[in-house]
């Protein structure tokens, strides 16, 4: 009897250990380690922003293919993001649900960066014919840009879902602020790294070009940050549903299900035992759903699922779409706006002319403006924690959109070097807002739903939508914004010039400001 009792107690302890309890408080060090991946990701993003255009020009990419490069990645991301979000909700890898996807996407990021920064060198090593070298260099470079953008955009969803899975509500708030902080720091360091003339350094003399030097630093930084992230907080893996059911029967034979329910109502357990899923076999890493219907889930049914979300989730997605449309329409063309409108230069003038050199100076100053944006984003992510108790999530969301709309409007109406650089600091407010507040609201929505289910005595297992697909839905809005801008804004710029970008950014941001104030739902 004693041995049977001990066995049952061990089983019950394994229930608690498997993750049914509310996640314990995480140390600051663990949250910082978890956030380091955002530093590495944004560092690589900044490198791409600084070098991808010179690289594409250097390999001879025709102008009519530029839009194709920037459209392929967001289209792929928009179609596949919900699939990966749902699949990660049901991944049965013993390493956890999110980390296998984060690792895989991180490897794709490195591969893409290696291809677009080293494409011409790779092709030169394998092909000696000059004409074929140029063609293949263009293909490899385009492939690298598409792969990098695809993975870098994609990886944000699993990272946020990973944070939500392993942290308590208070730690989720801290984690999102740390994410925004390190995103800004990584971007600032990346832009500054791109501003250094590496050709005059020891590494510059040792490697074929400065592109290889930049790749060395970016790959090293990202690998270190990714490793720290993956080692930060252990995940609770899923278990096969049949084994879970058998396990529950063993536990509840003597303890009775009601006793567990009592612990739920007393606050010891966050969810019923059916929510617990541990790894069935070590190394068994398969992406499967818990039911046959979920296994047969296609993109069409996933999109139907997204459309069937509660209305407050859909309104949040729309506000996120408006925010990213405003932010990207300004950021993608900002250096060109500085060169053509603020400095009155021309990218089409001969390269030895005053007009072209003036334009190049404006682009360089624009890069420093983006660096100011990244630094202010880090600072504001810290200030958010101070402001949150006073203005709430609604105030933070409204302030971010309002300040960005006003700053871009002023820049468009009064283009001046010093005022533009000063107003770039307000771009960081918008950046930090987009990276934190919407995901904070997702966490609030899920916590509210779980509390309501517990009050009604219902199970809070992973039935239906999970955090992964909700984070994926938000991330999809970034890709959708890129698709809309890639199709429409390029035409507007060719007709009205670069000034239209900041005016359109201001208009969309102010529309989003109204939407955030009147349509988005906030949990009391």
UniProtKB/TrEMBL annotation:
Keywords associated with the record: Membrane, Transmembrane, Transmembrane helix, Transport
Record GO terms (molecular function): sucrose:proton symporter activity
Its membrane topology: Multi-pass membrane protein
Annotated CDD domains: MFS_SLC45_SUC
Location relative to the cell: Membrane
A single cellular component GO annotation: membrane
Pfam families cross-referenced by the UniProt entry: MFS_2
Regions that span the bilayer: 43-61, 67-88, 100-117, 137-155, 176-193, 213-230, 321-343, 363-383, 395-414, 420-443, 471-493, 499-523
PANTHER family (alphabetical): MEMBRANE-ASSOCIATED TRANSPORTER PROTEIN, SUGAR TRANSPORTER
Protein name: Alpha-methylacyl-CoA racemase
Native organism: Falco tinnunculus (Common kestrel)
